Amino acid sequence: MKILLVEDDAVIGFIAQEWLIQFGHEVLGPAFTAPEALTLVLECRPDLAFVDINLEGQDEGIELARGLRDTYQVPCVFVSGQPASARANPDAAMGYLPKPYSLDDLEQSAQFVSALVRGESPPPPVAPAALELF
What is the DSSP code (8-state) at residue 58? Predict the structure, then answer.
């Protein structure tokens, strides 16, 4: 699966990237800004995007997720420490994975959301405990 990572914290982004690669995913990014993310999407359309809400000190991730969904049909999951912002914008993403998250929850969320998008039964567990679907 091709996964776009949008994360303004370089350490978190690179750790998540390496973890997802170990599970056989093709990872685009991490992108640290909305413009970087859009450039990556134009180069290679992802199957899923994990989007941090707070990019460059602003809530740019919300509008980025909306744009990815509306313009490119890329499903998104917010990964953020801002639960109120995530829950206030359920139209922009399929769900919310709160920070700090475990790397296992990240991988399980990717598999679960991907199965939902394809219309398949998600793999066990039914949903990662940390993932909140909208």
Answer: B
